[in-house]
Design a protein that fits this description.
With 338 residues, this protein is an alpha/beta fold. It has a single domain (3-337), classed as Aldolase class I (TIM Barrel, Alpha-Beta Barrel), CATH 3.20.20.70. 49% of the residues lie in helices and 16% in strands. The strands form two sheets. It has an eight-stranded parallel β-barrel, surrounded by seven helices. Strands 4-5 form a two-stranded antiparallel ribbon. The longest helix has 21 residues, at 185-205. The termini are far apart. 49% of the residues are buried. The structure holds 2-O-methyl-1,6-di-O-phosphono-D-mannitol.
Length: 338
């Protein structure tokens, strides 16, 4: 498959992406919330249980892994990338080295990881990865994001994407405007507009083949502490409007991050977006918490109860698969959960 075909397969109708690329620090937080010790064997057990779920085949087009995970052999026999491929999904890898304080604007971050990236990509390709992910993070406040943060992160994303396409892998471009704060939905719309504009400006300068990319953006939603809540219809309309105005048509797929929304909110909003979707983009999910929160709870109750963990994961995967077609409903949510 060439990169344009891979990008389409990752976002195929009814399917989305499982973001299981939590770095050791992030998975530590997730495990702490369920009182599980952050040991390599526990991380492997949780992740291989998800990757071996029956829901993978119908609803998951790709899985984003962390460096440790892509190199692990499952206790079920195959390596982790083999296990994912066996279930019909494409293995991918997070290649950034995290968001670090931005010199000159230290309350903001710049995502690092470009040094030595060409060599790391070769290693990941040989391990079976066919797509990659790099996440830039922008916070909203009275003075942020700064022009410095918008420009430097877009530049890094474009340099990353160029290296990834050089080795024939698909770069997921993830510019995440955080939902933390009291800002309203309009502010999120404006900031996301500026961020996306600068990203596509840099991607053009770096001669990226947009048909071989996937965008992983935030939805347009009010800040988590904003007093004015928005309906799913408003979120869907504003999100689609922002994408139509700022994302070139050549981009084949858009896979949202859940960004701290609850599992149900993330499904409901994605569904609403796809009910309206009047664009040429395949619009789907690339959720971490939005796909794993319930399964993680089950893992916390009993790490060996594979059935319950997989049931929880299969349910969320199915619900989001429906949302990616605009076919989710509250009733199906309850029926399928029961
Ligand atoms: C799964 O979490 C990813 C890794 O985060 P760290 O590098 O900070 O450990 C994260 O990039 C994730 O892919 C996206 O934020 C989407 O996840 P959510 O939970 O927002 O859907």
């Amino acid at each position: 498959m060439n990169i344009e075909e891979i990008a389409k397969k990752m976002c195929a109708k009814g399917k989305g992406i499982l973001a299981a690329d939590e770095s050791t620090g992030t998975i530590a937080k997730r495990f702490k919330s369920i009182n599980v010790e952050n040991l390599e064997k526990n991380r492997l057990n949780f992740r291989q249980t998800l990757f071996n779920s029956s829901g993978m085949k119908d609803y998951i087009g790709g899985v984003i892994l962390f460096d440790e995970t892509i190199k692990q052999k499952s206790t079920l026999g195959p390596t982790i990338p083999e296990l994912i491929s066996k279930h019909g999904a494409i293995p991918g890898i997070k290649v950034d080295k995290g968001a670090k304080p931005l010199a000159g604007s230290k309350e903001e971050t710049i995502t690092e990881g470009l040094d030595g990236l060409r060599e790391r990509l070769k290693e990941y390709y040989d391990l079976g990865a066919r797509f990659t992910k790099w996440r830039a993070v922008y916070k909203i406040s009275d003075k942020y994001p700064s022009v410095q943060s918008i420009k430097s992160n877009a530049h890094a994303l474009a340099r990353y994407a160029a290296l990834v396409q050089e080795i024939q892998m698909v770069p997921i471009i993830e510019p995440e405007v955080l939902m933390d704060g009291t800002h309203d939905i309009q502010k999120c719309y404006q900031v996301t507009t500026n961020v996306l504009n600068e990203c596509y400006n840099e991607l053009e300068i770096h001669k990226i083949n947009l048909k071989g990319t996937v965008l992983k953006p935030n939805m347009i939603i009010p800040g988590s502490e904003c007093k004015n809540k928005s309906s799913p219809e408003e979120i869907a309309n504003k999100t689609l409007d922002c994408l139509k105005k700022n994302v070139p048509n050549k981009v084949p797929g858009i896979a949202f991050l859940s960004g701290g929304q609850s599992e149900i909110e993330a499904s409901k909003n994605l569904n609403e977006i796809n009910k309206i979707n009047d664009t040429s983009f395949l619009i789907t999910f690339s959720y971490g918490r939005g796909l794993q929160a319930s399964a993680l709870k089950e893992f916390g109750k009993d790490q060996q109860n594979t059935d319950n963990i997989q049931k929880a994961f299969n349910h969320r995967a199915k619900m989001n698969g429906l949302s990616s077609k605009g076919k989710w409903s509250e009733n199906l949510e309850k029926e399928s959960a029961a």
